[in-house]
Amino acid sequence: MQNKKRLNLAFVYTLLTVLSIIWLFPIVWVVLTSFRGEGTAYVPYFIPKTFTLDNYVQLFTNSSFPFGRWFLNTFIVALASCVISTFITVAMAYSLSRIKFKHRNGFLKLALVLNMFPGFMSMIAVYYILKALNLDQTLTALVLVYSSGAALGFYIAKGFFDTIPYSLDESAMIDGATRLDIFFKITLPLSKPIIVYTALMAFIAPWMDFIFAKVILGDATNKYTVAIGLFSMLQQDTINDWFMSFTAGSVLIAIPITLLFMFMQKYYVEGITGGSVK
């Protein structure tokens, strides 16, 4: 039995090692390519022959592709969307978890059905609404688009609030606390994991989005986000000259998300597991 158990463990560890190598290979390749100092877009070897930082310098010094401006645009949109979306989602989830009202169950079912439809199905309608309001090709439009659908992402947060005993609310009410006092002074301090999870998801979505940003911003290159800007480097007439800088940009935009997950991993796991049980 022990030999069989050892063989099973050896097989599992071997499989996980192989999968890890497969998963890490493209990441390592992108990082190495970002430091490559020779060749064009495609070379027949993995490790660069020469290393340089010129690919990173070119991102911030060449006016043809203003990566610094794109990075700042993306950060502004992601941060604003994160704050607004987190507030909307947490408030919506708390209301549906704690307040009993007519047609509440019907609304929950309707929201579940609406969540099954991908957001890009409404892309054309959203674009014409923004155009009618003279908001197309603006960063404000992106913030509105990313934040407006935040309320439908309340299910995991609601599940987390359901795990907080309602007796805490009742005790606070006996002491004269209002709903607002309970929400800000009792519930929110106990809900740090789900708030962190919601904020991370709200930040990542606009940081990585391409479809909505491309449709809304059109050809306003000075308003581009990093996703659209990096894609523009891969056109047929620019890919050979800008491919290494493209990989350098890919590394740079991955750093904020990686650091966020590293520092918030504990709360992220607690939030998603605590909210998914209910």
Describe the overall structure.
The chain is an all-alpha fold and 278 residues long. It is built from 13 helices and no strands. α10 runs antiparallel to α13 (239-276). It is globular and about 70 Å long. The mean pLDDT is 84.
Provide a compact summary of the structure.
This protein is mainly alpha-helical and 278 residues long. It has helices at 2-34, 54-61, 67-98, 104-114, 123-132, 139-148, 155-162, 166-174, 179-190, 192-208, 211-217, 226-232, 239-276.
Strand tally is 0
Helix/strand-derived class? mainly alpha
Secondary structure: helix percent: over 70%
**Main beta sheet strand tally, sense and closure:** none
The global form is: globular
Strand content: under 5%
**Mean pLDDT rating:** 84
Q: How many helices?
A: 13
How far is the N terminus from the C terminus? 38 Å
Q: Could you tell me the radius of gyration in angstroms?
A: 24 Å
Which sequence of SSEs, written as H and E, runs from N to C? HHHHHHHHHHHHH
Report low-confidence residues grouped into runs of 5 or more.
none
Membrane topology: Multi-pass membrane protein
Transmembrane segments: 7-32, 70-94, 106-129, 141-161, 242-263
Organism: Streptococcus porcorum
Domain ABC transmembrane type-1: 71-264
What are the key terms here?
278 residues; 13 helices; 73% helix; mainly alpha
Q: What topology emerges from the helices and strands here?
A:
Layout: H1 2-34, H2 54-61, H3 67-98, H4 104-114, H5 123-132, H6 139-148, H7 155-162, H8 166-174, H9 179-190, H10 192-208, H11 211-217, H12 226-232, H13 239-276
Helix pairs in contact: 1-13, 2-13, 3-6, 3-7, 3-10, 6-11, 7-13, 8-9, 10-13
